[in-house]
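Give me structure tokens for this 178-residue protein.
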Amino acid sequence: MGKHWGLRMVLEDHIETWSSAVGPQQKAERRRAAFKYFGIPAVLALPFVFFHFRLQGIGQLLSGVTIFTALLFGLLVLMFNTGIAVRKDLAVFEHAHDLKLVISDLRANVTYAAVVAVCLSLLLAVAAAVTPPPSTTDPIGGLSWWWTPLCIWLFTHLGLTMLMVLRRLRTAFNYVSR
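Here you go.
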């Protein structure tokens, strides 16, 4: 599946941005980043496994996430155009030595964030489709409790990835503006 759709390459490109070091230092930095981006969401989702919390308002969540996903795709197209402009006019940014690398890393992170957002949208769409409306026997309604940890994990993972994107945008802006 990853070979045909390129999902493995998207993940590998994203992981490559976690460290610019080499050797043992790179391994240590990537382990820390893996815990940060995969372990923290798991730790935050774990209580929802035990407390059986049910998410409400799946339709509104789905609408918001799909709009956010579309905005990520727009940002990805913008990153493509920026990469072309920088490659063409690199002399304009003569003091921004690492700008190409930062834009490449940013593209990898935004691509990965878009894939995670699509996965979250699909998860919410399936969850909304299989969740019955509130009834007299189940007045609470909402998702079955086991959907909630998956949603929390994906929301947290996407949020942390977006914080990485913001950090890289700030770095790229600093390279250009100095």
